[in-house]
Amino acid sequence: MNVARYVARRLLLSGVVFFGLVVLAFVLVTVLPGDPARAAAGRNATAAQVAEARERLGLDDPVLVQFWHYLTNVLQGDLGNSVFTHRAVLADIADVLPSSLELVAAAMLINIVIGVPLGVLAAYRRGRTLDVMARIVALLGATMPVFWLGLLLQLVLSSRLGLFPLYGQLGFGERVPDITGVITIDALLSGDPALFSSALAHLILPALTLAASFIAVIARTVRSSMITSLDADYVTLARATGAGELRVVVRHALRNALVPMSTILGMQLGWMLGVTVLVESTFSRQGIGAYMVDAVLQNDLYAVIGSILVIGVVFIVTNLVVDLVQLWINPRLRDGLAPARPAAPEAVR
Amino acid sequence: MSTSVATRKRRRIPLVDRIALIICGLVLAIAVIGPWIAPHDPYAVNLSQRLLGPGPEHWLGTDINGRDVLSRILTGARTTLLATAVVLAVTVVIGVVVGTLAAVGGRVVDEIIMRITDVGLAVPSIVLALGFAVALGPGIGSAIIAVSVSWWPGYVRLIRTVVRETMQSEFVESAVALGVGRRRLILRHVLPNSLDILYVQVTLDVAAVMLVISGLSFIGVGAQVPSAEWGAMIAAAADNVTSGWWALVFPGLAIAITAIAFSLVGDWLRVLRDPTLKQEN
């Protein structure tokens, strides 16, 4: 398969998944039990207001017509209005998304900095104490309830030991200029080092909590592809040429693990954004996860479905980018020798 | 794990896996008899006994409403595990039917089914489940439906892959050569030789599904107050983390220990099914 055809097919697939996502969202807002007109008009609306909302939303139209309206609205960025904030859902999400992206970026950094070396060392010292310890760390990370871990870290590190702020994104009374919406970056831009370190201190525990369940998966992925490549002929050859052990492991063996690694990391990015629903509220962060939880508890249908669409789109786009980046990392893919992307390991769910 | 592969006797279950098996058995037993062995009434509010630390009367302490934490954990095991079991049963059935259809139904059917699973896998299960929970209203029933809806694509993919592999094997070719009908071929020859992977995957998934179910209850859309569901117990304890750590720590430990035990048993079953994995892991 040549590059152009591969890219075209990949783009088409992303489009199909996006379309499916909109169908799903449409089913959730219109077909399932619950009256969308009432949801849109608000809980205390009068019968006349509900009827007006029904008319405005076109709920008396045939389903296909309704779907067409829904699809065109979504494509124009209209995800409906939040009953609670009385604003467009997309505008609400645009306000909270930077905070979540900051959290996900920090968690991803922790994930890579801990997970990748853990996987490399486990593969290198296969079957030894270090490997067993890496397995235990991975097992604990994957089986601990995320929301519980967050509370435990709060209890021990913040409340008992006072090492980190308990919750929030900044200290009491601290403010940053609203430049990018990302608190740490804005704090940095404001040129106040104390403000920046405060923002960072508030970020560490939630990021660690979010990263915990993902480290296991990336460490396992790196470990198993490192085991294959460490046994490969080209690694033996590299050793025979007298290359140093570190160079052999990092430049030769790890390089080959890059493809499965980037696939998993790409998927994890989208999933992390979803798992913020279990982390942000605990730490009183104002991101899309906390927004979604509030919306669910207030029965704010359009806000919930809008968040699902946004998270889904982020997932689709990151996977697309990862696949295209892999064309560049892995020349075999360009020549059509390698099969398409590997299947996702079940654990990422 | 601690003993090397070479010295381990054949068919002897490693110590860690034996402990994990025992814990799994215990947890399942508690899910059945938990309410009867609970030392106190899990729902009896007693404000004079609130937030007592672990002691001889209340082994794991009491919560903010003076309810015995141990009794609530023992009673709640049923809610959490039953919900998990229902989700897995539903998704396995869908997975086998739809996955087989994808594997043997021809290119068009396969393509359609695979694109639908793509959609399901494009949104993290907890997020998709929140969408269904808000559409269906809160409650453990909605949580079960919500998680099932987000969980089946994984099983469809798994079964599709395994059935395709089985279709390539020699005995299937021989059966075809003998003139076995398509329906009989699939039901009598292909499926019975494909589905053993389910033991492994279901065991491994117990932990993951349980985490999502309790996560939903933690958020407030799964099991409702005053249910003794483990995630809901953590949510209730979260508001007074500093005054009574036990009400938070023990339900979480119950989830974590159960999840670890099922994961270990799942891994053990996986290696048992395919011993070549032993070298790799």
From TrEMBL, chain B:
Domain ABC transmembrane type-1: 77-266
InterPro entries, per database record: BP-dependent_transpt_permease, MetI-like, MetI-like_sf, OppC_N
Taxonomic lineage of the native organism: Bacteria, Bacillati, Actinomycetota, Actinomycetes, Kineosporiales
Family listed: Belongs to the binding-protein-dependent transport system permease family.
Membrane topology designation: Multi-pass membrane protein
Subcellular location, record wording: Cell membrane
Top-level taxon in the UniProt lineage: Bacteria
Keywords recorded for this protein, A-Z: Cell membrane, Membrane, Transmembrane, Transmembrane helix, Transport
Name of the protein: ABC transporter permease
Primary site of residence: membrane
Residues passing through the membrane, by range: 20-38, 81-104, 116-134, 140-159, 197-225, 245-269
CC annotations in GO: plasma membrane
Protein's GO biological process: transmembrane transport
